[in-house]
Write a structure and sequence with these properties.
4-stranded antiparallel sheet; Alpha-Beta Plaits; Transcrip_reg_TACO1-like; Arc Repressor Mutant, subunit A; about 240 residues
Length: about 240
């Protein structure tokens, strides 16, 4: 199940190092999550999840506070949460999650991005059935055996615990996200290398070199779209 989460995060952070794009996307995601309920992460699970993920990407506090203040205000911006599914080179599978205030803009953009980069957009359900929604939480300074014992003592039956690079990653049910974090926080661990809800493929595929280059171009193009929040896929990430 390993995905080398730290390497993936560092790659994304490096790509966005000279832009404010990643922060702008987090601003929208925080605003939308806060509008779902109370603008208080302790009373709003969706907001708590996105704030924890924002911390792992070092999103500035000013960006977070601005989004929360906006959600507390009287102004309303209507965003829709949409999921698109499609196929990349050599049968690779891709899920695209978007937040948009203009569906008529977003859908054609995503469709054309697929087609211009060697892919094609599928119908709803054509890909998602091959992925599992999963809580992914990583920490440093612990061994896998120590983390397994911590989960056992807390009576949490998580999916898996793996050592990946210098971190230990816990894979759990989505509704265990907060519980896993609480186990770590009760042990004095408050910094996480990764803390997010993700769509993990049930099986990974390896692409030939020529298809890999085209696939990475497609993923980069999708992630560059303003309305796209997350892109998930089933391609082996060892080379990413």
């Amino acid at each position: 199940m390993g995905r080398k989460w730290n390497n993936i995060k560092e790659k994304k952070a490096s790509k966005d190092a000279n832009t404010s794009r990643v922060y702008a996307k987090f601003g929208v995601e925080i605003y939308v999550a806060a509008k779902k309920g109370e603008p208080d992460p302790e009373a709003n699970r969706a907001l708590k999840v996105v704030l924890e993920r924002a911390k792992t990407y070092n999103v500035p506090k000013a960006i977070i506070d601005r989004a929360l203040d906006k959600a507390k205000g009287s102004a309303e911006e209507n965003y829709e949460e949409l999921r698109y599914e499609g196929f990349g080179p050599s049968g690779s599978m891709i899920i695209v999650d978007a937040l948009t205030n203009n569906v008529n803009r977003t859908a054609p953009l995503i469709r054309s991005t697929f087609s211009k980069n060697g892919g094609n957009m599928g119908v709803s359900g054509s890909v998602a059935y091959m992925f599992d929604s999963t809580a992914v939480i990583g920490v440093e300074g612990k061994t896998a055996d120590e983390v397994i014992e911590m989960m056992f003592d807390a009576e949490l039956d998580v999916r898996d615990v793996l050592e990946e690079d210098d971190a230990v990653i816990v894979y759990a049910e989505p509704d265990q996200f907060n519980a896993v974090q609480e186990v770590f926080k009760n042990a004095g661990i408050t910094e996480f290398t990764v803390a997010e809800l993700n769509m993990l493929p049930q099986n990974y595929v390896a692409l030939p070199e020529d298809a890999q280059a085209q696939f990475e171009k497609l993923i980069d193009a999708l992630e560059d779209l303003e309305d796209v929040q997350q892109v998930y896929h089933n391609v082996d990430s060892e080379e990413e």
